[in-house]
Amino acid sequence: MNENLVSKIKELKKERNAIILAHFYQPPEIQAIADEVGDSYYLSEIARDCKEEVIVFCGVKFMGESAKILSPEKTVLMPVKNAGCVMADMASEKAVIEMKEKYPEALTVCYINSTADVKAHCDVSVTSSSALKILGNVENKQILFLPDRNLGGYIAEHFPEKEFILWDGCCTIHDRIKESEVTELKEAHPNAKVLVHPECRKEIRSMGDFVGSTSGIIKYATENEAKEFIVATEEGILYELQKKNPDKKFYFPGGNGAIQCGDMKKTTLENLYNTLLNMENEVIVEENVRVNALNSLLNMHKLSE
Ligand code: 13P
Ligand code: SF4
Protein backbone atom coordinates (compact mmCIF):
# COMPACT_ATOMS: atom_id res chain seq x y z
CA MET A 1 0.00 0.00 0.00
CA ASN A 2 2.75 2.45 0.99
CA GLU A 3 4.80 1.65 -2.10
CA ASN A 4 1.77 2.34 -4.20
CA LEU A 5 1.27 5.66 -2.44
CA VAL A 6 4.95 6.54 -2.80
CA SER A 7 4.82 6.01 -6.58
CA LYS A 8 1.57 7.99 -6.83
CA ILE A 9 3.16 10.88 -4.93
CA LYS A 10 6.18 10.79 -7.25
CA GLU A 11 3.95 10.85 -10.33
CA LEU A 12 1.82 13.69 -9.04
CA LYS A 13 4.92 15.63 -8.06
CA LYS A 14 6.06 15.57 -11.69
CA GLU A 15 2.64 16.53 -13.02
CA ARG A 16 2.43 19.49 -10.65
CA ASN A 17 6.05 20.58 -11.20
CA ALA A 18 6.53 20.34 -7.44
CA ILE A 19 9.45 19.87 -5.08
CA ILE A 20 9.06 18.17 -1.70
CA LEU A 21 11.10 19.66 1.16
CA ALA A 22 11.36 18.00 4.57
CA HIS A 23 12.98 18.91 7.88
CA PHE A 24 15.12 16.37 9.76
CA TYR A 25 12.37 16.04 12.40
CA GLN A 26 9.83 14.69 9.90
CA PRO A 27 8.82 11.00 10.01
CA PRO A 28 11.25 8.61 8.23
CA GLU A 29 8.92 7.82 5.30
CA ILE A 30 8.57 11.56 4.60
CA GLN A 31 12.33 12.18 4.70
CA ALA A 32 12.75 9.18 2.38
CA ILE A 33 10.42 10.58 -0.28
CA ALA A 34 11.54 14.23 -0.04
CA ASP A 35 13.69 15.82 -2.75
CA GLU A 36 15.60 17.80 -0.15
CA VAL A 37 15.97 17.18 3.58
CA GLY A 38 17.76 19.65 5.79
CA ASP A 39 17.90 22.11 8.64
CA SER A 40 15.91 25.34 8.68
CA TYR A 41 18.64 27.38 7.00
CA TYR A 42 19.29 24.94 4.16
CA LEU A 43 15.59 24.51 3.44
CA SER A 44 15.10 28.30 3.34
CA GLU A 45 17.82 28.53 0.68
CA ILE A 46 16.27 25.73 -1.38
CA ALA A 47 12.84 27.37 -1.12
CA ARG A 48 14.39 30.63 -2.36
CA ASP A 49 16.34 29.10 -5.25
CA CYS A 50 14.38 26.09 -6.53
CA LYS A 51 12.99 26.17 -10.08
CA GLU A 52 9.74 24.23 -9.45
CA GLU A 53 6.45 26.13 -9.39
CA VAL A 54 5.12 24.32 -6.33
CA ILE A 55 6.85 23.72 -2.99
CA VAL A 56 5.35 21.11 -0.69
CA PHE A 57 6.86 21.88 2.71
CA CYS A 58 6.86 18.95 5.13
CA GLY A 59 7.59 20.79 8.35
CA VAL A 60 5.81 23.32 10.52
CA LYS A 61 4.05 26.59 9.77
CA PHE A 62 6.97 29.02 10.20
CA MET A 63 8.91 26.99 7.60
CA GLY A 64 6.11 27.11 5.04
CA GLU A 65 5.67 30.83 5.72
CA SER A 66 9.38 31.51 5.28
CA ALA A 67 9.31 29.68 1.94
CA LYS A 68 6.36 31.82 0.78
CA ILE A 69 8.01 35.04 2.02
CA LEU A 70 11.16 34.23 0.03
CA SER A 71 9.35 32.91 -3.07
CA PRO A 72 6.01 34.70 -3.43
CA GLU A 73 5.62 33.62 -7.06
CA LYS A 74 5.59 29.93 -6.07
CA THR A 75 2.66 28.00 -4.63
CA VAL A 76 3.66 26.76 -1.19
CA LEU A 77 1.61 23.88 0.20
CA MET A 78 1.77 22.08 3.53
CA PRO A 79 0.47 18.53 4.04
CA VAL A 80 -0.98 19.65 7.38
CA LYS A 81 -2.45 23.09 7.79
CA ASN A 82 -2.30 23.15 11.59
CA ALA A 83 1.28 21.91 12.04
CA GLY A 84 2.56 24.69 14.29
CA CYS A 85 5.52 25.38 16.55
CA VAL A 86 4.91 25.97 20.26
CA MET A 87 7.96 28.20 20.45
CA ALA A 88 6.94 30.41 17.51
CA ASP A 89 3.55 30.93 19.17
CA MET A 90 5.24 32.26 22.33
CA ALA A 91 5.95 35.66 20.72
CA SER A 92 3.01 37.74 19.51
CA GLU A 93 3.25 40.71 17.17
CA LYS A 94 1.77 43.03 19.83
CA ALA A 95 4.28 41.95 22.48
CA VAL A 96 7.20 42.45 20.06
CA ILE A 97 6.04 45.98 19.23
CA GLU A 98 5.88 46.77 22.97
CA MET A 99 9.36 45.32 23.59
CA LYS A 100 10.80 47.35 20.73
CA GLU A 101 9.35 50.52 22.26
CA LYS A 102 11.06 49.64 25.53
CA TYR A 103 14.45 49.05 23.83
CA PRO A 104 14.51 51.46 20.86
CA GLU A 105 18.30 51.17 20.38
CA ALA A 106 18.35 47.37 20.21
CA LEU A 107 18.79 45.29 17.07
CA THR A 108 15.76 43.00 16.99
CA VAL A 109 16.83 39.47 16.12
CA CYS A 110 14.33 36.64 15.75
CA TYR A 111 14.90 32.94 15.52
CA ILE A 112 13.43 31.72 12.23
CA ASN A 113 11.04 29.78 14.52
CA SER A 114 8.73 32.80 14.70
CA THR A 115 5.55 33.87 12.91
CA ALA A 116 5.58 36.00 9.76
CA ASP A 117 3.83 38.77 11.74
CA VAL A 118 6.70 38.79 14.23
CA LYS A 119 9.42 38.60 11.56
CA ALA A 120 7.88 41.68 9.96
CA HIS A 121 9.03 43.71 13.01
CA CYS A 122 12.52 42.21 13.25
CA ASP A 123 15.80 43.40 11.74
CA VAL A 124 17.24 39.98 11.06
CA SER A 125 16.25 36.31 11.42
CA VAL A 126 18.71 33.62 12.44
CA THR A 127 18.74 29.83 12.48
CA SER A 128 20.69 27.63 14.88
CA SER A 129 23.29 26.97 12.16
CA SER A 130 23.76 30.64 11.21
CA ALA A 131 23.20 32.56 14.46
CA LEU A 132 26.83 32.86 15.65
CA LYS A 133 28.05 33.99 12.23
CA ILE A 134 25.25 36.56 11.92
CA LEU A 135 25.75 38.03 15.38
CA GLY A 136 29.48 38.22 14.67
CA ASN A 137 28.68 40.32 11.60
CA VAL A 138 26.59 42.98 13.35
CA GLU A 139 28.05 45.90 15.24
CA ASN A 140 25.09 46.64 17.52
CA LYS A 141 25.82 46.32 21.22
CA GLN A 142 22.25 45.78 22.40
CA ILE A 143 20.34 42.78 21.02
CA LEU A 144 16.69 41.98 21.58
CA PHE A 145 16.43 38.24 20.89
CA LEU A 146 13.25 36.24 20.53
CA PRO A 147 11.50 33.88 21.07
CA ASP A 148 13.97 31.20 22.35
CA ARG A 149 15.66 32.00 25.67
CA ASN A 150 17.84 28.89 25.26
CA LEU A 151 19.24 29.62 21.79
CA GLY A 152 19.47 33.28 22.85
CA GLY A 153 21.43 32.30 25.97
CA TYR A 154 23.74 30.12 23.87
CA ILE A 155 24.46 32.99 21.46
CA ALA A 156 24.92 35.47 24.33
CA GLU A 157 27.63 33.23 25.85
CA HIS A 158 29.66 33.76 22.65
CA PHE A 159 29.33 37.56 22.68
CA PRO A 160 30.08 38.78 26.23
CA GLU A 161 30.68 42.29 24.85
CA LYS A 162 27.04 42.58 23.75
CA GLU A 163 23.97 43.09 25.92
CA PHE A 164 21.23 40.55 25.21
CA ILE A 165 17.61 41.05 26.19
CA LEU A 166 16.11 37.57 25.96
CA TRP A 167 12.47 36.75 25.36
CA ASP A 168 11.09 34.17 27.75
CA GLY A 169 10.11 31.54 25.17
CA CYS A 170 11.37 28.06 24.47
CA CYS A 171 10.76 24.82 22.63
CA THR A 172 8.98 22.78 25.28
CA ILE A 173 10.23 19.56 23.66
CA HIS A 174 13.93 20.48 24.00
CA ASP A 175 13.49 22.42 27.24
CA ARG A 176 12.20 19.42 29.16
CA ILE A 177 15.30 17.26 28.55
CA LYS A 178 16.74 16.58 32.02
CA GLU A 179 20.37 16.53 33.17
CA SER A 180 19.69 13.24 34.99
CA GLU A 181 18.57 11.61 31.70
CA VAL A 182 21.82 12.60 29.97
CA THR A 183 23.89 11.57 33.01
CA GLU A 184 22.21 8.17 33.06
CA LEU A 185 23.10 7.61 29.40
CA LYS A 186 26.68 8.80 29.97
CA GLU A 187 27.07 6.28 32.78
CA ALA A 188 25.71 3.48 30.59
CA HIS A 189 27.82 4.54 27.56
CA PRO A 190 31.01 6.17 28.90
CA ASN A 191 32.63 6.42 25.44
CA ALA A 192 29.67 8.16 23.84
CA LYS A 193 29.97 11.76 22.67
CA VAL A 194 27.16 14.10 23.68
CA LEU A 195 25.52 16.13 20.89
CA VAL A 196 23.17 18.93 21.90
CA HIS A 197 20.82 21.25 19.99
CA PRO A 198 21.03 24.84 21.32
CA GLU A 199 17.28 24.82 22.02
CA CYS A 200 18.21 22.77 25.12
CA ARG A 201 18.73 24.39 28.53
CA LYS A 202 22.19 25.59 29.62
CA GLU A 203 22.74 22.60 31.96
CA ILE A 204 22.33 20.26 28.98
CA ARG A 205 24.38 22.43 26.61
CA SER A 206 27.26 22.42 29.07
CA MET A 207 27.31 18.60 28.96
CA GLY A 208 27.77 18.66 25.17
CA ASP A 209 30.92 17.65 23.29
CA PHE A 210 29.20 19.45 20.44
CA VAL A 211 26.39 22.03 20.45
CA GLY A 212 24.76 22.97 17.16
CA SER A 213 21.98 22.71 14.62
CA THR A 214 20.49 19.47 13.31
CA SER A 215 22.81 19.54 10.28
CA GLY A 216 25.77 20.32 12.57
CA ILE A 217 24.92 17.35 14.79
CA ILE A 218 24.71 15.02 11.76
CA LYS A 219 28.03 16.32 10.39
CA TYR A 220 29.77 15.93 13.75
CA ALA A 221 28.50 12.37 14.28
CA THR A 222 29.46 11.41 10.72
CA GLU A 223 32.97 12.83 10.86
CA ASN A 224 33.81 11.87 14.45
CA GLU A 225 35.56 8.57 15.10
CA ALA A 226 33.39 7.72 18.15
CA LYS A 227 30.98 4.83 17.69
CA GLU A 228 28.30 5.93 20.17
CA PHE A 229 26.49 9.23 20.59
CA ILE A 230 23.97 10.66 23.04
CA VAL A 231 21.74 12.98 21.04
CA ALA A 232 19.79 15.77 22.76
CA THR A 233 17.36 16.81 20.07
CA GLU A 234 14.16 15.66 18.38
CA GLU A 235 14.25 11.98 17.48
CA GLY A 236 13.41 12.43 13.80
CA ILE A 237 17.11 13.21 13.30
CA LEU A 238 17.83 9.49 13.85
CA TYR A 239 16.77 8.66 10.28
CA GLU A 240 19.59 10.69 8.69
CA LEU A 241 22.09 9.84 11.46
CA GLN A 242 21.52 6.14 10.93
CA LYS A 243 21.46 6.44 7.13
CA LYS A 244 24.86 8.14 7.13
CA ASN A 245 26.28 6.01 9.97
CA PRO A 246 24.80 2.51 9.88
CA ASP A 247 27.49 1.14 12.21
CA LYS A 248 27.18 3.78 14.92
CA LYS A 249 24.77 3.83 17.86
CA PHE A 250 22.60 6.73 18.94
CA TYR A 251 20.84 7.15 22.27
CA PHE A 252 18.19 9.71 23.17
CA PRO A 253 17.64 11.11 26.69
CA GLY A 254 14.47 9.76 28.27
CA GLY A 255 14.44 6.70 25.96
CA ASN A 256 12.76 6.05 22.64
CA GLY A 257 9.85 8.34 21.89
CA ALA A 258 10.64 10.82 24.66
CA ILE A 259 11.80 13.72 22.45
CA GLN A 260 9.15 14.05 19.79
CA CYS A 261 7.59 17.14 18.28
CA GLY A 262 3.94 16.22 17.77
CA ASP A 263 3.49 18.87 15.10
CA MET A 264 6.42 17.61 13.04
CA LYS A 265 4.94 14.13 13.22
CA LYS A 266 1.57 15.17 11.79
CA THR A 267 2.81 14.68 8.20
CA THR A 268 1.89 11.32 6.66
CA LEU A 269 2.19 9.87 3.16
CA GLU A 270 -1.61 10.11 2.94
CA ASN A 271 -1.86 13.83 3.72
CA LEU A 272 1.17 14.55 1.54
CA TYR A 273 -0.58 12.75 -1.34
CA ASN A 274 -3.87 14.59 -0.75
CA THR A 275 -2.11 17.95 -0.65
CA LEU A 276 -0.58 17.34 -4.07
CA LEU A 277 -3.75 15.82 -5.50
CA ASN A 278 -6.06 18.64 -4.39
CA MET A 279 -3.42 21.39 -4.29
CA GLU A 280 -4.69 22.15 -0.79
CA ASN A 281 -3.38 23.87 2.35
CA GLU A 282 -1.76 26.72 0.49
CA VAL A 283 0.38 29.01 2.65
CA ILE A 284 -0.81 32.60 2.37
CA VAL A 285 1.10 35.56 3.79
CA GLU A 286 -0.46 39.01 3.52
CA GLU A 287 1.63 41.11 1.12
CA ASN A 288 2.53 43.97 3.50
CA VAL A 289 3.56 41.43 6.18
CA ARG A 290 5.54 39.46 3.58
CA VAL A 291 7.49 42.48 2.36
CA ASN A 292 8.53 43.47 5.89
CA ALA A 293 9.30 39.90 6.95
CA LEU A 294 11.34 39.37 3.77
CA ASN A 295 13.78 41.99 4.98
CA SER A 296 14.66 39.92 8.06
CA LEU A 297 15.16 36.74 5.98
CA LEU A 298 17.23 38.50 3.31
CA ASN A 299 19.41 39.94 6.07
CA MET A 300 19.81 36.43 7.47
CA HIS A 301 21.15 35.15 4.15
CA LYS A 302 23.30 38.22 3.60
CA LEU A 303 24.88 38.21 7.07
CA SER A 304 25.63 34.47 6.97
CA GLU A 305 27.83 34.75 3.92
P1 13P B 1 17.57 23.37 12.82
O1 13P B 1 17.18 22.20 11.97
O2 13P B 1 17.75 24.59 11.99
O3 13P B 1 18.73 23.06 13.71
O4 13P B 1 16.34 23.76 13.78
C1 13P B 1 15.59 22.88 14.45
C2 13P B 1 14.22 23.37 14.69
O5 13P B 1 13.94 24.12 15.56
C3 13P B 1 13.16 22.94 13.85
O6 13P B 1 12.01 23.19 14.49
FE1 SF4 C 1 8.98 24.12 17.29
FE2 SF4 C 1 10.30 22.62 19.04
FE3 SF4 C 1 8.74 21.44 17.22
FE4 SF4 C 1 11.04 22.63 16.47
S1 SF4 C 1 10.83 20.85 17.78
S2 SF4 C 1 9.03 22.80 15.51
S3 SF4 C 1 11.12 24.35 17.93
S4 SF4 C 1 8.07 22.85 18.86
Order of helices and strands: HEHEHEHEHEHEHEHEHHEHEHEHEHH
Bound small molecules, by name, code or SMILES, are: 1,3-dihydroxyacetonephosphate, iron/sulfur cluster
SS summary, helix count: 15
Report how far apart the termini are.
45 Å
Plain-language structure description:
- With 305 residues, the protein is α/β, with parallel strands linked by helices.
- The protein folds into 3 domains: 105 residues, NadA-like (Rossmann fold), CATH 3.40.50.10800; 99 residues, Rossmann fold, CATH 3.40.50; 79 residues, NadA-like (Rossmann fold, 3-Layer(aba) Sandwich).
- The protein has 15 helices and 12 strands.
- The chain has a 4-stranded parallel β-sheet with strand order 2-1-3-4, with helices on both faces. Strands 6-5-7-8 form a 4-stranded parallel β-sheet.
- Helix 3 packs parallel to helix 4.
- The longest helix has 17 residues.
- The mean pLDDT is 97.
- The protein binds 1,3-dihydroxyacetonephosphate (13P) and iron/sulfur cluster (SF4).
- 1,3-dihydroxyacetonephosphate binds next to helix 3.
